[in-house]
Write a structure and sequence with these properties.
The protein is of the alpha+beta class and about 400 residues long. Helices cover about 50% and strands about 20% of the residues. The chain has 17 helices and twelve strands. The protein is elongated and about 85 Å long. The chain starts with 17 loop residues before the first helix and ends with a helix.
């Protein structure tokens, strides 16, 4: 014991046993004394559990204090994002309250960020209809500012599309930065809207003034390129909104550099040619919504028959065949009618396309020829500017 000066082995801690100390410098009485290692005592497990409980309580109290401060300041969404969505109202710095349910509903309808939705509701007294009108009026300016900011980014992803209508066909490439946005339903819906505009008033205006080259002119069909600036002036969906306005709205919603890369319209040069023709379109790698007008590759093929206007039965026979030809062009990367006729038929490699076309004409009771074709693939029109931006 300490009182009797007992230094037996049983009174020493295990790490100070004679076996461990006999070879140490302090074992020699002449050796200089150095500070010994600190002694450690085993803390009972009950004390450890108590200490952890105290620390947990301290942390909980700290969090509660911070949360109370956030509630008082009105910035709960900054200190505790989860609680922000659980509350019935979101408070701004000026104390104006906007129901979270309204913010969520407006975001669902517009796809815009929560901050923009809350701002629209605040400016319109939490009136959802008025907030939507305010957003429509300001969407173009917001999108233009966003587009300017994002203009330098590379846009090598996207979709191409092919659509037939009004006796014509339209192809378009819409570019963006990521494949994630390229799969977005709103992105693909805009591509279809732009193609519908190409087949609408632009096709009518372009058909009278178009001039085509080579085989397209001799066949009575023209391939007309439409600039992005010209397309943006067309009406979107037949309403007052232009394609350009819808484009800016899309950029505001998806926050990427979205470009109308290129667009082409296949147009008949006369009503007689249109009455004798059928158009087939195809888009490869269709999206999940079932819309087969957009994908990674798109093609359009026009068949023209000799003689007078096609009757309904002949048109119904040649229409699916024209679509199969468009699918063949997409798969084989065919760029001209001469090359197409020399191709092996995708659906029966033992035959040439020219022979299959001849057989279809005989079955229809009149000679049938390929009047025009076009093919787009995502990324093939990207130039040096995109390569530099990506580097």
């Amino acid at each position: 014991s300490a009182e009797t000066g007992d230094t037996s082995e049983t009174s020493r801690p295990s790490y100070l046993s004679s076996d461990k100390l006999k070879d140490s410098p302090e074992a020699d009485g002449n050796a200089p004394r150095t500070s010994r290692a600190p002694t450690f005592q085993r803390i009972p497990s009950s004390n450890v559990a108590m200490s952890m409980t105290v620390m947990s309580a301290f942390r909980a109290a700290s969090r509660a204090t911070a949360l109370r401060g956030a509630l008082v300041s009105g910035h709960v969404h900054t200190a505790c994002p989860t609680l922000f969505f659980q509350r019935a109202y979101a408070a701004d710095a000026d104390g104006a309250k906007v129901p979270v349910a309204l913010i969520s509903k407006l975001r669902k309808q517009t796809g815009l960020p929560l901050g923009k939705c809350r701002e629209a509701l605040q400016k319109n007294g939490n009136d959802l209809k008025a907030a939507l009108s305010w957003m429509d009026a300001n969407m173009a300016s917001m999108g233009a500012a966003k587009a300017t900011k994002l203009a330098g980014r590379a846009a090598r992803e996207g979709v191409v599309g092919a659509l037939a209508g009004n006796g014509a066909a339209a192809l378009l490439e819409l570019s963006t930065e990521t494949d994630f946005v390229a799969r977005n339903e709103k992105f693909r819906a805009f591509a279809r809207t732009a193609m519908e505009a190409l087949l609408g008033d632009l096709a009518a205006a372009g058909g009278a003034s178009s001039s085509a080259e080579g085989e397209a002119s001799s066949s009575g069909w023209a391939l007309c390129e439409v600039s992005a600036d010209r397309l943006k002036t067309a009406r979107a969906g037949g309403g007052d909104q232009t394609v350009g306005d819808a484009h800016m709205q899309l950029i505001s919603q998806l926050a990427e550099n979205i470009q109308i890369r290129r667009s082409t319209v296949l147009l008949p040069l006369s009503a007689d040619v249109s009455a004798r023709s059928v158009v087939g379109v195809y888009a490869h790698n269709m999206d999940r919504s079932g819309d087969n007008s957009t994908g990674r590759i798109a093609a359009a093929v026009v068949l023209t028959a000799a003689g007078g206007a096609l009757d309904d039965s002949t048109r119904q026979r040649l229409g699916p065949f024209a679509q199969k030809l468009a699918q063949h062009v997409a798969a084989m990367d065919t760029q001209s009618t001469e090359a197409l006729l020399a191709d092996e038929w995708t659906f029966d490699m033992s035959q040439k396309v020219g022979a299959v076309l001849l057989a279809e004409g005989e079955a229809a009771g009149r000679a049938v020829s390929v009047a025009a074709l076009a093919r787009f693939e995502v990324g093939e029109a990207c130039g040096e500017e995109e390569d530099a931006a990506e580097a």
